[in-house]
Amino acid sequence: MGRSADNPLKDAFTSLGRVTVLFLDTMRSIFAKRFRVRDLVEQLHFIGVKSQSVVLLTGAFTGMVMCAQFYIQFHKVKMDSAVMSVVSVAMAR
């Protein structure tokens, strides 16, 4: 839905109402009596195991870019040997 620039107060209250409805629906779902363990396990498997390849690929490319950038900067001050240590600590955090 598009926002109207002529009435920002109406837009603010509309957004507040939508966030309130989302919050109430979330609370209702959390405290509902029925809890499906099978769905929870399936979702945890999908989020954890099935997304591991994306996480590893992203981490690998991030590490490669950091190595390239740090090498360029550290080479200027003759600290080439510290690149891997700095990248390892940065990636671990």
UniProtKB/TrEMBL annotation:
Keywords: Membrane, Transmembrane, Transmembrane helix. One of its GO terms (cellular component) is ATP-binding cassette (ABC) transporter complex. The keyword Transmembrane applies. InterPro entries: Permease_MalE. One of its GO terms (molecular function) is phospholipid transporter activity. The keyword Transmembrane applies. Pfam families: MlaE. The chain crosses the membrane at residues 12-32, 53-72. PANTHER family: ABC TRANSPORTER PERMEASE PROTEIN-RELATED, PROTEIN TRIGALACTOSYLDIACYLGLYCEROL 1, CHLOROPLASTIC. This is Uncharacterized protein.
